[in-house]
Amino acid sequence: MTEIFKNLIAGELVGGSNASRNINPSNTNDVVGEYAQGSIEDLNNAVAAAKAAFPAWSRTTPQERYEILKKASDEILARKEELGRLLSREEGKTLPEGIGEATRAGQIFAFFAGECLRLAGEAIPSIRPGVGVEVTREPVGIIGMITPWNFPIAIPGWKVAPALAYGNCVVIKPADLVPGSAWALVDIIQRAGLPKGVLNLVMGRGSVVGQALLEHKDVHAISFTGSVSTGRKVAAACIASNPMKKVQLEMGGKNPLVVLDDADLKLAVETAVNGAFFSTGQRCTASSRLIVTEGIHDRFVEAAIERMKGLVVDDALKAGTHIGPVVDQSQLDQDLKYVAIAKDEGAKLAWGGEVLKRESPGFYMQPALFTEASNAMRISREEVFGPVASVIRAKNYEEALAIANDTEFGLAAGICTTSLKHATHFKRNSEAGMVMVNLPTAGVDYHVPFGGRKGSSYGPREQGAYAREFYTTVKTAYTLA
Ligand code: NAD
Fold first, then answer.
1. Distance of CA 429 to CAs 107, 404, 413, 422, Å?
2. What is the pLDDT of residues 241-256, one digit of tens each?
3. Probe residue for ligand 1, chosen from 203, 284, 450 as the CB with the greatest number of ligand atoms within 8 Å
4. What is the pLDDT of residues 164-202, one digit of tens each?
5. What residues are labeled active site?
6. What is the pTM assigned to this prediction?
7. How confident is the model at residue 16, as a pLDDT?
8. Sheet strands (E) in 25-62
């Protein structure tokens, strides 16, 4: 019999009469587990538990919080291979990528364990004689978290760790496609010594559990990562609620990678193929627009196709697989729909784009590279969120920069060049939150801010010490001594 993984509410595992199957996208015969589908009542109980736990938790010492987060980090890192395997099995990224992501979650908890001890305030002289001013940071309260399926442990980790470090209580609703990694993470943190009710997990549908979380009057803030269309609904609900909720949104991307004539060709191809297709292209930071200047264009395309021919698309858990399956049938349908749209619009399918059959039944797709694309095409403007990238030809650096910035999104942008002048100019003039020089647009450090501009992000940055801007609220106190 398949094990049923229950919700964690007030420190107890509850529910499960209504559960959904977590299916391995590399092998649809493989059921990872049955995971409880929470109800609105479960959500209300979780928020009530968080509310009850908040007064005591928000007054814990930094040392108490440090010890719990550090213990959680130690267990995540000790179990990274097992957690990485679970992640790859439920999401479809390759085993090394899954283990890498689990490792990152462990590192994030270690970082925020340290942050517990680093939260300082300011003492500022007043403009009035005899008056002192103190600026301190306090926890926000109860944080609701809604996460997407493509980073099943890292994203819950980079939201939960700072929330707890700064003394908040949490109700998290992970993506319904990949609840397993979030369940394992919450289990680890709970057993690290967290008081009951501080962290609650309610799995289930966005339209039910997510929506109820957005509307609950006792939730003070929402941290959301997902698509732009859901993000808009989240922000609207946060503003409509009374009192209004603080909100942070991390959403999609249509990230450019500029390749200039003077680029190291081998490095540029590696950077592009990694950024566009690794993790099956299912990264918000994936390079889906490869903007290549005329002098290197044909050599770049030829070398990129050669490199793509060598990519092994297969079961995520198999040794030697470079690209795992697409996450599910509906995402595969979306990817194929965009391949058809791009062809209709006049882009040339230079490689891949077809469904592949493998030993096990799964959602396998050959990564697709389009050439002769223009920046006006839908393939260049809309997020596909799969292994699909297009090459856009540019006359020179100036035109490449203009194309890179001509998008509604602004998450990540990259440039491959050996010119210090162009690299420096690009870093200053790219309209993205994260800029990479001779590095893939995807792949970031955990101790520095993460986030974008324009339609990609809304609200304060995530990760690193900057996370405190969202997870704390500032108090200004005046004293006449
Ligand atoms: P999604 O928007 O479909 O779902 C995200 C989460 O929102 C899920 O947990 C879902 O259940 C929930 N949800 C759906 N409808 C809701 C509602 N009405 N009320 C409340 N919650 C609701 O996104 P997805 O398909 O899971 O993830 C892919 C998207 O995430 C892509 O657009 C990708 O770019 C983006 N993403 C962004 C970042 C980033 O940091 N910028 C990172 C990873 C993924």
1. 32, 10, 11, 10
2. 999 999 999 999 999 9
3. 284
4. 999 999 999 999 999 999 999 999 999 999 999 999 999
5. 250, 284
6. 0.97
7. 73
8. 27-36
Q: What is the Å distance from ligand 1's center to 45 Cα? A: 24
Ligand 1 centroid vs 220 CA: distance in angstroms? 20
- Whole-number mean pLDDT of the chain? 97
- For the chain, the straight-line distance linking the first and the last C-alpha, in angstroms and rounded, comes to 69
* SS3 category, 369: strand
Ligand 1 nearest-atom number relative to CA 457? 41
Q: Is the dihedral of CA 157, 158, 160, 162 positive or negative?
A: positive
Structure tokens at 397: 């650096």
Residues with CB under 6 A from ligand 1: 146-151, 173, 175-176, 206-207, 210-211, 214, 225-227, 230, 233-234, 250-253, 284, 383, 385, 411, 456
Counting from 1 in the atom list of ligand 1, the atom nearest the Cα of 331 is 25
Q: How far is CA 293 from the centre of its chain?
A: 31
Among 216, 230, 382, 407, say which to mutate for ligand 1: greatest number of ligand atoms within 8 Å of CB: 230
Whole-number Å distance, alpha carbon 56 to ligand 1 midpoint, is: 32
Determine the Cα–Cα distance for residues 395 and 426; give it in Å rounded to an integer.
16
The residue type of 85 is R
pLDDT tens-digit map of 249-308: 999 999 999 999 999 999 999 999 999 999 999 999 999 999 999 999 999 999 999 999
Closest residue by CA, ligand 1 atom 32? 227
Q: Which of 7-21, 417-431, 465-479 has the lowest mean pLDDT?
A: 7-21
Which is nearest to 65 in space by CA: 144, 161, 197? 161
Could you give the CA distance from residue 100 to residue 106 in angstroms, rounded to a whole number? 10
CA distance 327 to 432: 27
CB neighbours of residue 195 within 10 Å? 15
Instruction: Find the 206 Cα to ligand 1 centroid distance in Å.
Output: 9
Domains of the chain by start residue, with CATH: 4-251+456-480 (3.40.605.10), 255-437 (3.40.309.10)
CA dihedral 425, 430, 434, 440 (to 10 degrees): -80
Instruction: Pick the residue whose CA is nearest to atom 42 on ligand 1.
Output: 284
242-254 burial, b for 16+ CB within 10 Å, e for fewer?
Answer: eeebbbbbbbbbb
